[in-house]
Specification:
Blueprint lengths: L2 E5 L8 E4 L13 E6 L2 E11 L14 E2 L8 H13 L4 H8 L2 H4 L7 E6 L1 H4 L10 H12 L3 E2 H6 L4 H9 L3 E6 L18 H9 L8 E6 L5 H14 L3 E5 L7 H10 L4 E4 L5 H13 L4 E4 L11 E7 L16 H12 L3 E5 L4 H8 L4 E5 L10 E6 L11 H12 L3 E5 L8 E4 L16 E3 L4 E3 L6 E3 L12 E4 L3 H11 L4 E5 L9 H10 L4 E5 L12 E6 L13 H13 L10 E6 L5 H25 L6 E9 L4 H28 L13 E13 L2 E10 L2 H16 L8 E6 L6
The structure holds adenosine-5'-diphosphate (ADP) and zinc ion (2 copies).
Length: 747
Amino acid sequence: MTILSVAMPVPLRRSFDYRLPAGCDGPLLPGMRVLAPFGNRKLVGVLLAIKSHSELPEQQLKPINELLDSQPVLTPALMALCLWAASYYQHPIGDVLHNALPALLRKGQGTIRQQRWRLSHLGQGLGPDALKRAPKQAQLLSLLQRQASVDAESLSSEGISRAVLKALLERELVESFETEAAASYRERDTEAPLVLNAEQQLAFDSISLSEGYNCYLLEGVTGSGKTEVYLQLIHQCLERGQQALVLIPEIGLTPQTLGRFQRRFNCTIAVMHSGLSDRQRLLAWQWAGSGEASIVIGTRSAIFTPLDNPGLIIIDEEHDSSFKQQDGFRYNARDIAITRAHREGIPIVLGSATPGLETLHNALQGRYHHLQLTQRAGAALPPSYHLLDIRNIPMEDGFSPTLLSAIGAEIQAGNQVLVFINRRGFSPALMCFDCGFVAQCQNCDARMTVHYGERLLRCHHCEAQQALHRQCPHCNSAQLDFRGSGTERSEQALNRLFPGTQVIRIDRDTTSRKNAMSELIEEVYTGQPCILVGTQMLAKGHHFPDVTLVAIIDADGGLFSTDFRGPEKMGQLLVQVAGRAGRAAKPGRVLIQTLQPEHPLINALVDNHYHHYARALLAERQRSGLPPFGHLALVRAEAQQPEQAEAFLLALRQAVESAAASAAASAATSAATSAATSNTAPATRFFGPLPAPMARRAGFFRGQLLLAADQRKQLHQSLALLCHYSDQQPLARKLRWSVDVDPIDMY
Ligand code: ADP
Ligand code: ZN
Ligand code: ZN
């Protein structure tokens, strides 16, 4: 009997066996989808293996409803990658595979087939002047002589009517065919590559596309021309007839970035990001898998794109936290990319001005090739950094007088200014002067943020919102005070202080509408003097040639964060924002307001930019055994009853510890014969369970248990035990819990 082992999209860490119903024949291969009964539903699962024996008795096996594919939708390479990821992240394989599939395939639809037209055998024999007397037909002929085939869309964009097509079809010069692969691109003129400078050339020459897997860190200061190096590597990759996969952070995938790729290459580029329709996404996926697209460029989930003939992977801004999925399947696309490159035997380039400490450590240890670009490309100079001590200085809506006069001077001189404040909304706290009342979210341990323009209080951690108070709800005082500033307040203040100067605010609230971001950026590109005020959305990917001053309103947040990654993230963010200054002909300046002008970290950043700062942080991590010197996993649980999450986590901890203790006891018995085994390394250390830093969010009480180990293997053994135990706990089904391997946010 044929038994199908299927991964089903359910939160269970196992596969399920089904029977093949009679009459269902055709080839069976792993990576094909099936429709199969699960409980009282039918779900789309992915075939893992075909076997002849099941542990379940035959009569308990249900038949699948339907085999959905005639060939695998997931290639053997992707299947293997997903299996590896499921085990590494301790995540159910069914959900991992579901993450890897485009939505339409997840829902059970087939791949998209398109009608296209090409020259028939007869048509191919025609010379360029054959249809001279019918100019429209000649136009179509010439188009098909230049590109292999056309679809309806490209016909209409060329202004060729259906009647013309029909005429050529009737004369049997053109034939129609169906395909799921072909993308249509228009022949276009491409921009010539730039002449690399000496550092770029050295980096370029050091990266080999023909020697199989190697991981390269391209550490280049902002504006050093990393992108130009990527473009020339991709060019080389295409010349070898191979595909390049480029991952970019969510907010880095701007029309400007895409435009740079499109202007350079005359080939199909499959773009994968969250703004696509399901159909567009599936098409891009098919083009990548068939090899029609030579370049695939996308955000995090594009790491699961099938590639026909991969030759190179590039991760731009590799330190960016958007590569880590923060819910469900909590994978890090950068780390999966490195594994993928290794398995496919191809090179991978990680680029950043501010590499993550894990990556930097690997490079310093010699596991990655370390390439550096220390100078800005072209004529641009590095920006100069200055600290503004704001202790005891009277401030105006968050701005010190020195900062205001610097902004004024730049505007006077016809330049643009970027003001960075990493908080949206008007003010992060509404307080009563008379009784000390502070507006809190009812569902979260968090303050409500004032959104003044909307006259609303909003919680930034759940959906809660309410009308802005006019009076204190406790004492009826009208003396309400907005404490602290966000982008909205800074925008208002700048409008008041610099009348006549355009102030452009860029944050999640002003860019939520489709195309809003591009429209705002277009205004900046006019080069008119203006003040840009915004959150970290401004930090990455943008190239603002006329910005000469970057003002950082408050640099201190990250220094006192409870998260051990706080200083690393703060440093990266400040350097990235600062990197927007002086990127072209005009030199740039960065002014940083701080209450900690003597803090060694702030000073390291100002004196040596990221380079020494990051190395100082690494030394600190080594002293405390934190990543990359130790390995962490965070188990989170949340429940509607207080203490339930922590009780659950405590039971998990105790189960793993007692399993480890009995393993150690049996090891000790056998150690009577072999002294070496009693010297086993210390096992996994547990911290917690403890309440999460925000103990209540969206109405749930949240707890967390941290696992730490010096060796990855120990950590994974403990996690496997923990998951095994938890899967058998009835309580596990009553609350929400998750495992986060290599967490980057500790809340
Ligand atoms: P990065 O990706 O490191 O931030 P970019 O590749 O965006 O840097 O380059 C910054 C600017 O320098 C761009 O305007 C780019 O056109 C220019 N540039 C890059 N390489 C060169 C070069 N070799 N010669 C002249 N200009 C260059
Ligand atoms: Zn009050
Ligand atoms: Zn809330």
